[in-house]
C-alpha cells in the first residue's frame, strides 16, 4: 500500500487543462456538477471523485464524456463543502484528513443525488463510477442501493476485511498491473471473494504495463501516446459495462 511520505497515489498523472461543458446545481444539501446529452434520456451515471474533489477538471471530463455517450453525468460534492485534498498539502496529515471523509458514509449524499436524478432529470436507468476514493465509494453503494444497476470501481483501494458477498448488481473492477499502492495479491484476494460469493455478474480487469494509478482518469493520451491504447480501451470498457447492465 502507500508509503508514509505519500500515503495516497492520486497525485500521480496529469491535471487536465479542460473547461467543462455542464453546470453546477444544488441537490438538497450538496452541490453537484451535471452534464446532459443533447437528446432527452432516462439514463444517468453518478461520477464519484477522488481525493481532489468534485471540481477537478479530470473528473468533470468523465461526466462530460458520459454525456457524449448519451446519458446524464453527475459529479456530486461528496465532501459536502469541506476542502478537497491539494497536491501541495502536507502528506503527513493525510490520514487525519481522510478520517473525516469516509467513503462508506455517504448515504445521505447518495440519497440526495438519486432523488435529484429521478425527480429533476427523469432518470430511471442508473449507474455509478468512481476513482480511487470514489472507487471505494462505488463498492459501498453497490451493496446498498438496488436502483444502481451497474457500477465501475476504478483503482479503489482494497482492505482485507472488505465484504464483497452482497453486491446487488453487476460491478466492474479496474486496476493497473504495476500499482505500488494496490499490490496484485490484493486484487487476487478480491477476485477470490467475488468468485466465492458470486450472486451477480462481475469482472476484475488488470490493465497490463500500466504504472499510473487511475490512468483512465489521470493520464492524457495526447501527451502520453504510449498509454493511448490503454486509456481509450479502459474508457471504452467502462462505457460498455454501463451500457450492458444499466
Comma- or semicolon-separated keywords:
246 residues, alpha/beta, Rossmann fold, 8-stranded mixed β-sheet, 7 helices, 8 strands
How much helical structure, as a percent, in the residues? 25-40%
Poorly predicted spans: none
* Tally of domains: 1
Number of helices: 7
End-to-end C-alpha gap: 33 Å
Beta-strand fraction estimate: 15-25%
Structure explained in plain terms:
The protein has helices spanning 57-68, 94-99, 107-120, 133-142, 184-196, 215-218, 228-245; strands at 23-27, 30-35, 43-48, 72-76, 125-131, 148-154, 171-176, 202-207. The protein has a single domain, classed as Alpha/Beta hydrolase fold, catalytic domain (Rossmann fold, 3-Layer(aba) Sandwich), CATH 3.40.50. α1 (57-68) links the parallel β3 (43-48) and β4. The two termini are 33 Å apart. The model has no long low-confidence stretch (mean pLDDT 90). An 8-stranded mixed beta sheet has the order 1-2-4-3-5-6-7-8, with helices on both faces. The protein contains 7 helices and 8 strands. It is α/β, with parallel strands linked by helices. 31% of the residues lie in helices and 20% in strands.
